[in-house]
Structure formats: C-alpha cells, structure tokens
Amino acid sequence: MKRIYMDNNATTAVRPEVMEAMLPFYKEHFGNPSSVHWAGRETGAALEAAREKVAKLINCAPAEVVFTSCGSEGDNLAIKGVADAYRDRGNHIITTAVEHPAVLNSCKYLEKHGFEVTYLPVDGHGMLDVSSLEAAITDKTILISVMWANNETGTLFPIEKIGAVARKHKICFHTDAVQAIGRVPVDVDAAQVDLLAISGHKIGAPKGVGALYVRKGVRLTPLVHGGHQERNRRAGTHNLPGIVGLGVACELADADLRNTAQRLSAMRDRLEQGLLAAIPESQVNGHPTMRLPNTLNISFNYIEGEAVLLFLDMQGIAASSGSACMSDLEGQSHVIDAMGVDPMMANSAIRFGLGYDNTEADVDQVLEILPNIVKKLRDMSPFYHERDAAKATANS
Amino acid sequence: MYSDKVIDHFTNPRNVGEIENADGVGEKVSSSCGDRMKVFLKVENDIIEDVKFQTYGCGAAIASSSMMSELVIGKTLQQALDLTNDQVADALGGLPAPKLHCSNLAADALHEAIKNYQETNA
C-alpha cells in the first residue's frame, strides 16, 4: 500500500537539503554561539547567516528576527510581550474568532489580567470585514492580532489592508503567518506588519524552531528571561541545528515559492473538483479564491469526519479533520463554527494540506478511494436514509 | 488509538441496515457530540431474532453499534435490557477515554427499541 501524506498544514517532512545542512551542527560545530572562543565564533556566524535567510524571505532586516522554539511561542511572545510593554497606553486587543489556539488562548490569558479583547466574526467563507475591524478600534486599543492564512480552511485575510488600518491608527499589528510562509509571498514591509510569527516545521525545517519578526522600534517584554540572547528579547541557548535548518528552509521556500504554489494549487483544484463532482451534497469550506494554494477543507453531508479519516488512514492516506491541535477534543472546529456552516456539514469537514512531496498520482488515489468511503458511511447513516423525508418536510 | 477489535468492527460492521416492518425501533442522540444511533429489532417469542442499526458518528460509535448487535442477537429481551454501555465498550477491548461517550449510545438505543417493542405489544 502506497502511503500518502496530505496533512502538511499540521507538519511537514524535513527537506533533505535542510537535514544535510543541520547535521554538522550536532557534532562538528557544536559551540554555543554566545561563546567568544573559536567554537562559538563559527556557530555564531552560522546563526547570523540563518537570520539573514529568514529576513530575506519576509523582507526585513536580520536584526528584526527573533528565533523562537515554535509558532506558538512567537504568537505568545508577540501578544503578551506587546500587551505588557504597551499597558500604559491601553488594555484593548482586537483579534478574530478563527485564530489558532496559540493566539486565542494568549488573549484569554490576558483577559484574566485586565485586558479587553474583541473577537471579530467572519463570513461564510471565513473572511474578515476590514471595516468592522476599524470600527472596533478604541482609544485603548494597543494591538491587532489577525492571522495571515487560516490553518483549517486556508482562507487568506486581507493583511495589507489590515496593516494600513493599524498603521493609520498607530496600533501594533501582529500576524500569525505560520501557514502562509512558504506558500504565498509574505512581505512585512508591504503589509505594514509589526510582528509576524513563523514556524519551522510547516516549511520543511524541523519541529522545535521558529521565529518572530519584530519591527525595529516595537517594544516587547520577553516571555523567557535569562541571558542576553536575541537582543534580550528571548533568553535561552540557541537551538542552533534547528535555526540553521530554518534558514535553509526559508532559502528554499524563497527560491521555490512561485513554482511550488502553482504546482500545488493545480493539484489541489483537481482534487477539489474531482471530489465535488464524484460526491453529491459535499461543499468546500473556505474562500473560493482567497485561499492558500495547498489547502482544501471539504465536507460531505450526513457523515462524520473522524470516520472518514479512519478509513483514509487504513488505505494509507493521512489527512486531518481540522487543526491537529484540536483533534483530540470533542465538538466541531471553532473555525468552521464561526463561519456559520451547518453543524452536520461542519462535523464532516476534512482538511487536505498538500505539500512539496505530493504528486498527481496521490491526487488520483484519493479521488479513487474517497467517494467509496463516503458511500459506505452514508449507507450506515440514519440521516442519509431520512434525507428525502427531511427535504419533503422542509419544502412543505 | 483504537483496539484491533474496534478497527475490525468499524471496518466490517455487522448488521448494518434497516428491518422493514421492525417489531421495535429506538434511537439515541449523543448530547455531547451529536452522534446518532438508530436500532431496529425483530422479536420472536421474547427472543431477539435480528438487530439492524444505522449510525451517524465516529469510528467508536460505529464499532459500538456493531458490537452491540452481535451481543444481543439470540438473547432474551431481559438479557438485552441487562446489557450496559460499559459491557459494549469492554467487548470491544476498551475505548480511548475521550471516545467512551460514543459507546454510551449503543445499549441505550437498543433499550429504546425494546421499550418501543414492549409499548406496541403491551
């Protein structure tokens, strides 16, 4: 059985070039980059080279890149760090109802400590209305935190417009760009972003490394206190192999971006059209055009998503029923829920996240297997058997 | 996450379907996750001759329905009424803690079907 991995929004394989670049930093070049001796100097140079590669991908100065352990840490550092540093100016934060838990739970934490948070709604495509965001701003607003791309649906928010609003009102603007990096162009200058979180393992670097862009001049209280690393913004000995890997992954993403996006979106569209054609009463969740090129979130009425995933898994296909962080919890996705999707459709949502290694043959295999899985589960579903009666009742 | 027995019953569920002119029909909906189980009975001389089910739910819910049906075919109504949700889960080799509520539908839906049979044949 050929195994197919289509859960690249959860995590990606480490790319071979990344792995190769990292290996010497475990054994040969192991010095602490903060040390003054020869061993520290050579790793210090590698650290700064990686910082330059990350900076180039998002169009910022290397000094504006803070290395972190993951995207969640970046989001926490941005939100809590700005909230603490700008507490004297106000206590109001604006975010959206569909953010990653790293953002939502950071905001909930701050609510317990005297901050007020506005959670903006989205429409049926998961899209945010920028005018409602601007209307939510008060003279106490110190931070706007809006994700670049949604992890479950791939819907892309109008980041440049939000950046312009934030700049106009002189409010710090943070974006969780974990899903966007390496999949769509990300330019912090054009978007007028002040803080931007990156995760290594979504772009072919290892787990355990990330970065936070912090615009020069933005004040930030660190989460991790200790040494002077990262210009006093994040203490702790650097995860040098991981950081080297992140640098190479950013370099590869920069070089491949256009071609990879075109290739993935063509495959994603074929998968989407094939499934919609083969499976009646199915729907795509997310924006039809403003969406990540690799992401397809699709629902099949009358059945439940976990059962679909199990059958896919038995045939070697790895997909997801939403955010990987949420998959152990009961209840439907907060993202799909916020979009106002019918609950039964929402319960059946499956997310395919295509990645660098996927091929046309992978798409063919899913198109061959999935319609049969849906049929089998619908044959078991009481809702499916009763749908004609339900439709008649609804129409009467 | 799931035992081999759960996977077996999920992959090849026994007794899926509907009994036309069933002697008893019952159903249960999970208030926590929305899973739904519908059970159809054929009863002969106080013995459950046949059980069919339809289930909307996750792998655990489907496997629990299948196991429940196997456990009660050929049993008396009283033996079926004595079946508990825990016994269904145990017969499956256990379920992960977050999924235990899914097995809580199977025996309850069966009991509803028996109640329906008893009410219509009282």
What's this entry about, in short?
Chain B: InterPro entries: NIF_FeS_clus_asmbl_NifU-like, NIF_FeS_clus_asmbl_NifU_N. The complex is a heterodimer of chains A (about 400) and B (about 120). Chain A is α/β, with parallel strands linked by helices and about 400 residues long.
Structural class of chain A: alpha/beta
What string, H for helix and E for strand, traces the elements of chain B in order? HEEEHHHHH
Segments of chain A where pLDDT lies below 50 for 5+ residues?
A: none
The main sheet of chain A comes to: 7 strands, mixed
The name of the CATH topology of the largest domain in chain A is: Aspartate Aminotransferase, domain 2
Q: Could you state the oligomeric state of the chains shown? A: heterodimer
Structurally, how many domains make up the residues of chain B? Answer: 1
Helix fraction of chain B by DSSP (H/I, runs of at least 4): 40-55%
DSSP helix fraction of chain A = 40-55%
The CATH superfamily of the largest domain in chain A is Type I PLP-dependent aspartate aminotransferase-like (Major domain)
Named at the architecture level, the CATH assignment of the largest domain in chain A is: 3-Layer(aba) Sandwich
What is the number of helices of chain B? 6
What's the CATH class of the largest domain in chain A, please? Alpha Beta
Radius of gyration of chain A: 22 Å
The biggest sheet of chain B, with number of strands, parallel, antiparallel or mixed sense and barrel status, is: 3 strands, antiparallel
Name the poorly predicted regions of chain B. none
What is the CATH C level class of chain B, in words?
Answer: Alpha Beta
Protein name (chain B): NifU-like domain protein
GO molecular function (chain B): iron ion binding; iron-sulfur cluster binding
Domain NIF system FeS cluster assembly NifU N-terminal (chain B): 1-121
Organism (chain B): Syntrophotalea carbinolica (strain DSM 2380 / NBRC 103641 / GraBd1) (Pelobacter carbinolicus)
